[in-house]
């Protein structure tokens, strides 16, 4: 088996991995600053893009 074949096998095996949508992260709107809120918006937009492929 050459390097290219191993690489292809790894790519094929990665196709069967579950896709995680959410991470278990503690978030408090009461303690969030402007940067936190922008990060939440970016994360929601990224989730939306992933779900609409």
Question: How would you summarize what this structure contains?
Answer:
By secondary structure, the chain is mainly α.
Task: Describe the protein's architecture and organization.
The protein has 53 residues and is mainly α. Helix content is 57%, strand content 0%. The chain is built from 2 helices and no strands. Residues 1-53 are annotated as: Disordered. This is YfhD family protein.
Features:
53 residues, 2 helices, elongated
Write the layout of secondary structure elements.
Layout: H1 3-14, H2 34-51
- The separation of the N and C termini measures 34 Å
pLDDT below 50 for ≥5 consecutive residues: which ranges? none
Estimated structural class: mainly alpha
Percent range for helical residues?
55-70%
- Percent strand: under 5%
Biased composition (Basic and acidic residues): 1-14, 37-53
InterPro entries: YfhD-like
Protein name: YfhD family protein
Region (Disordered): 1-53
């Amino acid at each position: 088996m050459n390097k290219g074949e191993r690489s292809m096998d790894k790519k094929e095996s990665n196709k069967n991995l579950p896709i995680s949508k959410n991470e278990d992260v503690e978030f408090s709107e009461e303690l969030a600053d402007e940067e936190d809120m922008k990060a939440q918006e970016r994360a929601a937009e990224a989730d939306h893009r992933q779900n609409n492929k």
